[in-house]
Amino acid sequence: MPELPEVEALAQHIREHGVGRTVARIDVASLSVLKTVTPPWTELHGKEVTGAGRHGKFLDVEVGDLHLIIHLARAGWLRWADTLSAVPPKPGKGPLAFRVHLGPPGQGPGFDLTEAGTKKGLAVWIVADPKEVPGIAALGPDALALTRDEFVTVLSGHTERLKNALTTQRIIAGIGNAYSDEILHMAKLSPFATAGKLADDQLDRLYESVREILTSAVNRSVGQHAATLKGEKRSGLRVHNRTGMPCPVCGDTVREVSFADKAFQYCATCQTGGKPLADRRLSRLLK
Length: 287
What we know:
26% helix, lyase, four-stranded antiparallel beta sheet
């Protein structure tokens, strides 16, 4: 799933290559991705792209007086092309869901929104105000906008496990499964620690890890072509999706806890005092 660094890089790419261009045509290959009815997507035709930004993991493309809001979910992606085919895509055929022509079709650039797999989550909204999107309206503060004191306040009182608190967007916006694994590994904290019960030194390590992991990832990602962002993300990960491989810090084997639809990775030596976490949803440290 694209997280804060990748969405920031996509926004930067559109700012550099899309701003000043006019939406010539939009092709909708999958109506299910469009979550708003009014204004219709045709309302964007003829309007100029004036900016791009993000709200947590939501991409915001500013088109005239409207906002094209995109959430790429788990398997969605934005593919930029210097020239897009003028032939409208066939509905329901392949991963292509939504196409934006930023120039004459067949002659100008633009981007496709695609989604792999059978579990669909890619979503698009066309709104006058980003806060009309329920997910944006419910977002907590941005992970990179928090001061240390604000960060402590946000986590204070929460009884969620730390892994869940970091990835719950209404608590902190922008962090997903991959970077939360990396943050917790750098901070040397258990994913099952209680978010609201961390000691001051643990909070210091966690805050600095959030800043370091996300800032480094943004710096690596911004300037990359959209097609290379996934590979860039994978290359910078130390524990996420590295089950069975040696921890780059201590050499212990990276372990995994699996749930019904996702998994996280950690190093027992670095994060849990050498004790493996039981691999079930309501796990506690094995004794």
